[in-house]
Amino acid sequence: MDVLGSGHEQVVFCSDAESGLRAIIAIHSTALGPALGGTRFYPYASEDAAVADALRLSKAMSYKNSLAGLDLGGGKAVIIGDPRTDKTEALLRAYGRFVESLGGRYLTACDVGTYNADLDVVARETRYAHGRSEAYGGCGDSSVLTAYGVFQGMRAAAQHCWGSPSLAGRTVAVAGVGKVGSWLAGHLVDDGADVVVTDVDPAAVERLQARFPQVRAVEDTAALVRTPHDVYAPCALGGALDADTVAALPARVVCGGANNQLATAEMAGRLAERGILYAPDFLVNAGGVIQVEDERHGFSFARAQSKASGIFDVALRVFELADAEGISPAVAADRLAEERIRTVGRLATIRLPR
User: Fold this and answer.
1) 78 labelled as ligand-binding?
2) What is the pLDDT of residues 130-175, one digit of tens each?
3) 275 is annotated as contributing to ligand binding
4) 76 classed as catalytic
5) HSE of 278 in the Cβ direction (CA atoms, 13 Å)?
6) What value, to the nearest 5°, has the Cα angle with vertex 318 and ends 197 and 107?
7) CATH number of 4-54+75-136
8) pTM score over 0.70
């Protein structure tokens, strides 16, 4: 794994034999501020696979935080192991000490396999753990504003495509109705959309339909893709937009909460060729990181939600730039993120008195 050629500022390998901790912390950029990104606890097949994931996810966090207008860089940590069997107090606290050793260059939060309660344990060893439970003054479940931000991005896509920022009368296909997907479905129902869903966990679908009986369900993602719909919302695992899915999609818009939705970079161009408007995932799912960042200032849900509402305007800027330059929205979003990192990050070179 070519870590040195990745363009990252710092990659830290963390090991504590007694607790079983094996982790990698990747700091992609601190140009805009300390690198914020979650901790993923996952049974990677190899250390190389874990490093590759940390590098990829940390770069995405730099772009996500930049587009969200936050004074934060991008980082990510991965812990190698099965969170169901390997997660212990000792391991989490050992990890917290490694985070603390970076002196605030990296701020951690929840991700796949870690939860608010885990961050409460990590925080016993570091000042730089966020996304904590409400009982400890934290922001709680960040999926609430993640879904809200995706909904704002979807409203912007509707405005761009159909001239109205409403999903009323549109059919939205939601793949994955866990935390983010279920909150998103609720926003869509309230807005008057016709919602059809699928999930690998039948219980998740049953919970959603108990709240919203009008939501339709299909057996699996393949069936969902074949179902006529206007908007496709991937809200489960990454890589959902592969060549077969992109070729089959009947949607006019793709906008969902999952990270790294494009199986390969060329899928952005293929979506554009088919006339499908893609709302870049790292733009529209930034509500969660906005919620976590607000915790640093004494959490206010109303203030964080107000910030997350800005995703609507940023998404419109991305779509307009893509049209004006004849590029995909994914490339347009990258350009806007990189421009802010360059122009605002440059200000750190102006020396201030001590």
Assistant:
1) no
2) 999 999 999 998 999 999 999 999 999 999 999 999 999 999 999 9
3) no
4) yes
5) 30
6) 75
7) 3.40.50.10860
8) yes
b/e code 92-126 from CB counts within 10 Å (16+ = b): bbbbbebbbebeebbbbbbbbbbebebbbbbbebb
* Partners of residue 234 on adjacent β-strands: 175
Confidence of residue 347 (pLDDT cuts 50, 70, 90): confident
310 assigned to a ligand binding site: no
The pLDDT score that the predictor gives to residue 1 is 59
- The residue among 41, 36, 42 whose CA lies nearest residue 65 is 36
**Residue 284 counted as an annotated binding residue:** no
Beta-ladder partners of 107:
36
What does the pLDDT read at residue 239? 87
Task: Yes or no: say if 315 and 152 are a contact pair by the CB < 8 Å rule.
Answer: yes
Element (H, E) at 157: helix 143-162
Q: Which of 59, 64, 76, 307 is catalytic?
A: 76
Query: Any known ligand binding at 179?
Result: yes
The CA distance from 141 to 138, in Å, is 9
The listed CATH number (3.40.50.720, 1.10.150.120, 3.80.30.20, 3.40.47.10) that belongs to domain 143-339: 3.40.50.720
